[in-house]
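Hi there,

I know you've been waiting on this one. I reran it after we fixed the sequence typo, so this is the corrected version. Both the input and the resulting structure follow.
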Amino acid sequence: MTTGWIIGFSIGAAVVLVVVALVVPILVLARSIGEAAPLIHDELKAAERNTAPLAELRTTIDHAEVIVAGLRRGRERLGG
């Protein structure tokens, strides 16, 4: 083997080590995200369930506006 081959193999090995050093942390992070994903999904479903009644808030506001308008008319009729 000549010096050129040894240098080539050394550079190739160094490149492989750098790639492995960069990819391994990404894979570890992806694994931890993958393990947390079901818990996150369950919490988001619970938040959806807990906030579903807010869809009826517009109806509540509409009824409150009707009540307040009626009270205002009653006060005006009574001279207040």
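Quick highlight: The radius of gyration is 34 Å.

Best,
R. S.
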